[in-house]
């Protein structure tokens, strides 16, 4: 049960639609659930942080991913986000439970349902090669209840392409800028907009890019104000943070809602 569901339940108690005893039964949920000897699912995370636990798929076996997802579904969780999930694991899990899977981002969503989307996040890539990381950010933010648009291949090698999309960028509450090589996109975007920019360096590039380190250092040294940086290829971290910022804004004076 998340914060909004808990608040709704308390309102129904106040209105007399639910008895205190019935509410107590719904609220009496153990803070975590153990899955065999390999996982303890944090069931109260949505109450503390507003979002339920996310499953990190890399390093876990397909059986472990399935076991955690099934346990969360049995506890009433929906739209369970699974990151860094390879196609073989996705195929196995998808045979057992309902699973949406997007291969390039390696994102899986178990128990996917339609939810209201709020605010406005723009995920922008320098090149097409940055799309897998950008899509990880896109699906993460969307799954957590945010309206997200994806703008691809507008890097500084053809800056007119970025300027052409300025009307879309101006509508965003927060922008995720994804770039490899020299990582200049984040500074270019940061110098054009008034909203927060989350820079994501990618490992895209030739030898001297050092697997994304060049882009990371360039973004950390950006002279544009309002730019923050996450780790190399960390689309999930950028999408999650963008969602938190966007929902904080949308809860007050967000620019758009769906």
UniProtKB/TrEMBL annotation:
Residues annotated as domain PurE: 119-251
GO biological process, one term: 'de novo' IMP biosynthetic process
GO terms of molecular function: hydrolase activity
Any matching Pfam family: AIRC
SMART domains reported for this sequence: AIRC
Protein name (database record): Nickel pincer cofactor biosynthesis protein LarB
Organism: Candidatus Eubacterium avistercoris
Source lineage: Bacteria, Bacillati, Bacillota, Clostridia, Eubacteriales
């Amino acid at each position: 049960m998340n914060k909004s569901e808990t608040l709704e339940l308390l309102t129904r108690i106040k209105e007399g639609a639910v008895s205190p005893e019935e509410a107590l039964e719904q609220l009496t949920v153990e803070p975590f659930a153990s899955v065999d000897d390999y996982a303890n699912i944090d069931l109260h995370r949505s109450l503390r942080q507003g979002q339920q636990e996310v499953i990190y798929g890399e390093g876990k076996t397909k059986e472990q991913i399935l076991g955690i997802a099934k346990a969360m579904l049995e506890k009433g969780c929906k739209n369970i986000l699974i990151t860094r999930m390879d196609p073989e694991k996705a195929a196995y899990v998808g045979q057992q439970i309902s699973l949406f899977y997007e291969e390039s981002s390696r994102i899986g969503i178990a128990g996917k349902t339609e939810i209201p989307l709020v605010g406005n996040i723009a995920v922008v890539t320098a090149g097409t090669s940055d799309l897998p990381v950008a899509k990880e950010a896109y699906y993460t933010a969307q799954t957590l209840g945010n309206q997200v648009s994806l703008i691809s291949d507008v890097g500084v090698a053809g800056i007119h392409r970025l300027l052409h999309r300025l009307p879309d960028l101006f509508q965003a509450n927060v922008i995720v800028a994804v770039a490899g090589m020299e990582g200049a996109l984040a500074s270019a975007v940061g110098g054009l907009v008034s909203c927060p920019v989350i820079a994501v360096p990618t490992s895209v590039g030739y030898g001297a890019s050092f697997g994304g380190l060049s882009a990371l250092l360039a973004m950390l040294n950006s002279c544009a104000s309002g730019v923050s940086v996450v780790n190399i290829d960390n689309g999930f971290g950028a999408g999650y943070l963008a969602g938190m910022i966007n929902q904080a804004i949308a809860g007050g004076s967000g620019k758009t809602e769906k």
